[in-house]
Recover the amino acids of this structure.
């Protein structure tokens, strides 16, 4: 019997670019196909040649829809991959908007770089475009939670709920007598919107995320924090600008703002959801009621905000100086309409930029929460005079204690654990906690490293 191997082609030493190549004999399956984001040296990796023969790849399996787990898939198809990519139904619905949007944003960034001359390449080219992304959607195939399927010869797979966003899954792979479980990104057990992750089944190999592997989420009353920021900003006549992830966080924010308004805790300010992708994601969230805890009425209240799809509507927001709440993507301020709003509102002391999620190293979001006095947007340095605030308790990732409790409840005993999808300090801290708590054999794999999964 041949022993399977796993090669870590991303999310090793970083929280981005998740890609894991599982091989056994002539069978090759890629788990996740993420885009590298953040530091330039990471983004440049998206352009590097693949370290394996693409013609030998049998299938791709995606744990959830976030671009750091799926955003390279259109490029993979553009390079010649013609097989299937499997995911849950919720993930497929989200990818129908996320991947084309990613292609569109890359085309826009290339056009803007060429127009401003802010590129060393002549002309700048996108990694892939809108049409490439739309073509890649034809290769996606949805599978239900809990039902086994065969993505490649001799391989069976099964999705269970991960509680992170709509459609997010933990993945079991069974091949050559070995079970490999990928946690994907794991949600919080007491998330006010998403249902918790299912406990895991028996597994030989565990590949776990570690985004918050060295931190606990603060005991923060999120509604109180948002209430305080909104009221403080409104009192001085400012705008609350929220860079928000289109999937998950935007829906959570809409729910919070609607609740605060209904309880009379904040003024009845105009609320704008200024992201076509977030608007579509909200509709998908409302459709997939089995994935979350909200009632029909609570879902409907999300639509009380003004949804601005058209570019002209987005530009009109920047023409106003009246108090309002603007929720716009992207969540780490790496692209999208939020950049135009930051240009407009950052240089004014009365405004507040409120971050509501994790900010990876190398992103504008990380620079802003670290206190930078200026930030580069579209080739220009914009002064930071607005207040910058952050809500910690809205994270859609379980912290290290929540992950440990989840793994205890799962009652698993893997013979090998790999800690991935964390910055170096977080990944190593979580490695130590897993070893000390369970006495498991735990490793933090290096990028491009290949490991045998044979029993020892």
């Amino acid at each position: 019997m041949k022993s399977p191997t796993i090669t870590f082609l991303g999310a090793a030493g970083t929280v981005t670019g998740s890609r894991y190549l599982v091989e056994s004999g002539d069978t090759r399956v890629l788990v996740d196909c993420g885009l590298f984001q953040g530091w330039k040296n990471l983004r440049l990796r998206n352009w590097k040649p693949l370290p394996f023969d693409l013609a030998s790849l049998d299938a791709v399996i995606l744990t959830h829809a976030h671009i750091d787990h799926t955003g390279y898939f259109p490029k993979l198809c553009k390079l010649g991959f013609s097989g299937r990519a499997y995911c849950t139904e919720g993930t497929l619905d989200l990818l129908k908007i996320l991947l084309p949007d990613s292609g569109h944003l890359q085309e826009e960034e290339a056009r803007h770089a060429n127009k401003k001359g802010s590129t060393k390449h002549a002309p700048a080219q996108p990694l892939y475009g809108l049409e490439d992304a739309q073509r890649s959607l034809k290769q996606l195939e949805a599978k239900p939670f809990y039902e086994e399927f065969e993505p490649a010869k001799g391989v069976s797979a099964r999705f269970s709920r991960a509680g992170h966003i709509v459609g997010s899954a933990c993945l079991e792979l069974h091949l050559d007598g070995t079970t490999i479980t990928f946690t994907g990104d794991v949600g919080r057990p007491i998330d006010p919107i998403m249902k918790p992750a299912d406990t895991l089944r028996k597994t030989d190999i565990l590949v776990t995320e570690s985004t918050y592997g060295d931190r606990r989420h603060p005991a923060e009353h999120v509604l109180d924090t948002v209430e305080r920021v909104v009221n403080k900003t409104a009192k001085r006549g400012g705008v609350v600008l929220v860079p928000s992830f289109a999937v998950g966080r935007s829906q959570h924010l809409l729910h919070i703002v609607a609740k605060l308004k209904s309880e009379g805790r904040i003024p009845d300010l105009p609320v704008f959801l200024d992201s076509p992708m977030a608007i579509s994601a909200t509709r998908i969230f409302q459709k997939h009621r089995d994935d979350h805890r909200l009632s029909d009425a609570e879902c409907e209240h999300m639509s009380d905000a003004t949804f601005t799809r058209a570019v002209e509507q987005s530009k009109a927001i920047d023409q106003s100086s009246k108090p309002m709440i603007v929720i716009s993507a992207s969540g780490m301020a790496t692209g999208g309409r939020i950049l135009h709003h930051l240009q407009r509102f950052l240089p004014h002391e009365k405004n507040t930029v409120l971050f509501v999620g994790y900010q990876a190293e190398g992103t504008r979001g990380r620079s802003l929460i670290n206190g930078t006095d200026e930030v580069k947007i579209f080739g220009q340095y914009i002064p930071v005079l607005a207040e910058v605030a952050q809500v910690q308790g809205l994270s859609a990732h379980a912290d290290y204690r929540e992950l440990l409790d989840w793994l205890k409840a799962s009652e698993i005993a893997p013979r090998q654990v790999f800690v991935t999808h964390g910055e170096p300090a977080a990944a190593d801290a979580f490695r130590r906690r897993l070893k000390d708590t369970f006495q498991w054999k735990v490793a933090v794999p290096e990028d491009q490293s290949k490991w045998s999964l044979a029993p020892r």
User: Anything to note?
Assistant: Residues 359 and 366 are 5 Å apart (CA to CA). The first strand starts at residue 5 and ends at 8. The chain has a mean pLDDT of 93. The domain at 5-215+397-452 is CATH 3.60.15.10 (Metallo-beta-lactamase; Chain A).
